[in-house]
Each structure stands twice: as structure tokens, then as C-alpha cells.
Amino acid sequence: MKTLVVWLAVVCPILATVQRYDGYQVYEVTAKTIPQMKALMELAQLESFDFWTRISLNASTDIMAAPDQVNQLLDYLSKYQIEFRTKINNVQELIDRQEDTPKLGPHSPRYNMTWDNYYRHEDIVEFAYELAATYPNLVSVSSAGQSYEGREMVLMKISSGGDGTKNAIFVDAGIHAREWIAPATVTYIIRELVENYEAHPQYIDDVDWFFMPLI
């Protein structure tokens, strides 16, 4: 059986210990010369600041600084005449805004996901089991074990049946920290395949799908 492995990466949107980011700021900086780019690379190697994006020439790079590191960062950027602008004044305010946004909407009465927000581990697991309960002829869920922090890693199989000779596609998400879009993308694909099966039955009739929406 041929297997196409699709790698999607993102953080599991819940942490064992919640850390607050009050006063943390994010700066968008741009290295326009080779020396400026090297200066940013040297800064990244110190691991004192949190680089959200990769360093490239003539491309923006986002750097997060703790409140007591802001002046140090700005002095460093000024020293090398690196252009910058404040992108986020307070990271915690954005986190609070995300947490305060109502997540239960009219899209589905069965599970707490609308794809208007990023969702926690328990919401995604609930989505998996609810979909399997609603569409038992297409969806089955099993446990692939537990994460390092003890959370269940669900494996979803989407199939219309057959003799086991169909090609299979395996899709996972939630490998890399802070890349939250991958579990959102994977669960959206799952929903589209299952709930809109009649619009494109060949996607399931011709292929067996295996999904791990969170690693």
C-alpha cells in the first residue's frame, strides 16, 4: 500500500503551565545589508530574544522582547542601524483577546469548533470523537498514545471501506511550537471530507485517510 505522508506543523494550542506575556513587545526589523543580517544572526544565537520568523536579507523578521529587554534590543538595532517598528505593543493583550472570544457558534451543534479561532487540545479531541459518533460509516478514532505532557494523541481514520488495497494518505499536525495554523487546517480538511462527502465522494472512496490533528 502506497502512503503519501503530508507533514504539517503546529503547536498544540495549550501548555501545561500557562505563562503570561504582560508587557512583552514584538518588533518587526529589516536587515538591508549583509552586516545587518549577520548582526541579527549573532543576536539570535545569544537566545536572549525570541525570534518569531527567520532572518533573511531585505525581509522582515519579528522579534519578541520581554519588558526588561526592550531597551537592550532597541540599542542593539540602533547600533547597527537596523530599521524596526513596533508590531505588537503587548503580547498578553492579544492572548487575552483570543481567550475571551466566544468559540461556540452556529456552524455545528455537535462540537465546539467554528474555525474562527484557534482551539485547545480538548476541543480538537472532542471534535474527533463527535465526528466519529455522527459518521460511524466514515470515521473511526483510536488512541495513538500520549504526548510527553500526558495528553491523548488521537488517530482518525476516514474511509468508506474496501478490501484494504486503496492508497492511503497520512496527515499530521501540531509538531512545531506556535505554528497554530496546522491543526486548524487539518481539522478543516477533516470536516470538509466528512461533512461534505457527497460533494466529492471520490476523495474518500478512492483513498483511505489517516489524520493525527495533534502530535
TrEMBL record:
GO terms for molecular function: metallocarboxypeptidase activity; zinc ion binding. The keyword Heme does not apply. It holds the Pfam family Propep_M14. The keyword Lyase does not apply. GO terms for cellular component: extracellular space. Keywords: Carboxypeptidase, Disulfide bond, Hydrolase, Metal-binding, Metalloprotease, Protease, Signal, Zinc. Residues 117-215 form the Peptidase M14 domain. Residues 1-16 form the signal peptide. One of its GO terms (biological process) is proteolysis. InterPro entries: M14A-like_propep, M14A_act_pep, Peptidase_M14. It comes from the Eukaryota. Its cofactor is Zn(2+). Belongs to the peptidase M14 family. This is Zinc carboxypeptidase A 1. It comes from Daphnia pulex (Water flea).
